[in-house]
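= Paired protein data =
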Amino acid sequence: MDLKTLTYIFVFGSFALYFAIAWWARAGSTSEFYVAGGHVGPVANGMAIGADWMSAASFISMAGLIAFLGYGGSVFLMGWTGGYVLLAMLLAPYLRKHGKFTVPEFIGDRYYSKTARIVAVACLIIASLTYVIGQMKGVGVAFSRFLEVDYGLGLGIGMGVVWVYAVMGGMKGITYTQIAQYCVLIFAYTVPAIFISLQLTGNPIPQIGLGSKLSDGSGLYLLDKLDLIVTDLGFKEYTTEKLGSNINMFAYTLSLMIGTAGLPHVIMRFFTVPSVKAARASAGYALVFIALLYTVAPAVGAMARLNLMSTIEPSPGEYLVYDQRPQWFKDWEKTGLLKFEDKNGDGKIQYSANKETNEMVKVDRDIIVLANPAIANLPNWVIALVAAGGLAAALSTAAGLLLAISSSISHDLMKGVFTPNLSEKNELLSSRIVMTVAILVSGYLGLHPPGFAAGTVALAFGLAASSIFPALMMGIFSKRISGHAAVAGMCAGIGVTMLYVFQHKGIMFIPGTAFLGDMGENWFFGISPNAFGVVGAVVNFTVAFIVGRITGPAPQEIQQLVENFRIPSGAGAAHKH
């Protein structure tokens, strides 16, 4: 069967499954719409968290970043995984014990302030919208290649799919759809990796294959061979290249970690389980499900880079003739994400680090995972499976982000601040209307991404790191911090981060591009804008504690509230509405 037919079968077959689940799990109350009624089991919730977590950035982009950044790409593995551990250990159980629907609702209660709740909503929307742009790009990239439609049309189809199951089912529909999406995406990610690891090293376990000898009889280890190839072409050694200075590497990793722990769409998942004990258990299961993909990603990145460069330069100094380029090369050229320019007119594809002679003028990092099976000449059904997996990853996270945005507006602003007497029926209706508007706005931004956010989701983590994470940490672990202090901290943290990003947007380091040392001359201690969230977080904490000293401690009843949800009564059921 040809690739296009198989792709239609896999992709639209998975969509049919998502629609069926959404219809079965449609929400009938605000509790079901926001937190799936609070009845999701730990294993199911762990799997749904895994799907929510492994966005297009994880499935499509991360291995591409590792493929071209080498060692420097490890910041994404360490940052995103470490951030989940922070979230599971330091935030999720306490937030679940408090027993509310959303992160801004917790901040409003803890800081006894509608202003704090409104500021939290604003920070959430800024971070989540920035993040959802990346998911929409992933949808457009996957559709434009595999269904051979225009990028905009592909994006529109993806928006329609999300609208059906997110608006109909809310958190309940999203949860059970994400369980199916996790199964699709993890199967789609690991199957090609097993095939390629077997091809290159004879070992079916990609994690072990990454450190194994090649099966071509050369006696070289896979990473040693890759180092030889990239340095021969003028690139930096794959296993040692860094993202700028050590300070920038550290700041980037830490910014991703604390930003990850502050992203509300994942925190919301812990409100869907029946107890604090179940929240802790689902965190453990989620870490296992996440590890299945994250431990494979370095192998996928390295093997994809090796295959790509070995295809273009089969032997040292001998380049691929353009007219004899393989089909996968032609297919990706049609999307505009892969471009060749014959600069010396010899009809061969020279690929090197020298900008003057390099003829591969564009290799979009986001194509690496999707193109990898075709580069390795794997069967068509594997290529079609990867397309379905990439779409599952992008759609699952997009749905979670859009729910976080819509619930913050309908529940936290409308119900919590402006129209407190709103009936449950009207709140549910308004949630669906807001969700629809959020999908349209995010789709428009996916089609016309603002310059400061194009090409990366790392900025979203920086915004969450500088605003939401410190407010949650202080709210849980500092009984005395006041509402005025929290509001001042959030405004200062996100304000300084956005100011730095906009000031440097013209020279912003986008992951996946070559790192140029002179780009960082005007950076604060050599810290790139995408890594600046950690500085914003320090500003947030500092301003909050200074203002707290001036305005005095939180009232005694608030201190008692903090004491109550910090008591480690994990075996008991959490307070419910």
Remarks:
- Residues 485 and 548 are 5 Å apart (CA to CA).
